[in-house]
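Appendix B.2, paired examples.
Example (i):
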Amino acid sequence: MTNAKITNRTKRNRLRLRLDVGIDYEADIEHAESVAEEALSDLQFVEDVPKPQVMPTTFGDSAIGLQLRFWITNPSAPRRAQAKAEVLRSVKLAFDREGIKIPYPQRELLAREEADGFQLREDRRSRPVEKSVSED
């Protein structure tokens, strides 16, 4: 360790934090970015300078990934946790207000018939229920 370069990220008594959030593929990315940036302003634990940033980062399985970058002062474990919780609450409320959906992961499983005759049974819960009228 004596030869390793050490970076003190709290030298100026501040620390940049990141929080990832996903938005629906149908959402307007630029609108979601501006809504998130606005949600990051005027929070107790988030510093105004340097200005918080929102960056699109990934095409996820179920969502477009946005990374929220913001600074806190007097970094400590409790302040990091409080800042992240404050940001999460604020962005969630702002997205709800603007109708921006935060999707949850969805998986679709498919199987094919193998040579030994194995088949995956069809999951009937994934099909619409059809009501039948019986005659008495």
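Example (ii):
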Amino acid sequence: MDLDAAVLVGSVHDLEKLRPLEEIFQTFGIRYWVEVASAHRTPERVAQLVKKAEDEGAGVLVAAAGLAAHLAGAAAARTLLPVIGLPLVAGSLGGLDALLATVQMPKGVPVATVAIDSAANAAYLAVEILALRRPSLREKLREERRRWEGGKG
């Protein structure tokens, strides 16, 4: 199976927050997998999963994490794939810590970042990136936006 997207999430407790992303991926026929890995607790696993995503032909990687949220950066440091950071609410700062940790990347190691808890936008951005190599996705995206214009989205 040729993989479209790989999704890493920092904690099993955050899997439910990925439901909108998974629904959108399923709607668009995106082939993906989701794995739990922590940049701090299991850094070797993160490295292995990034390599697995590359080996399986992924075109984009989504990394979702709360608190210090170094998962997206840890992934981006190990690949040339586009990485989308999805900061999640966890702890007392309402996700602001995760947002700042995700967007503050050094020159040359970018992470595209969506709003806190915005799994849907992470999915749509991933689909847009994948549409660069799968033109059929572009038309599906156009149809989706037409529905929104009609007040149905």
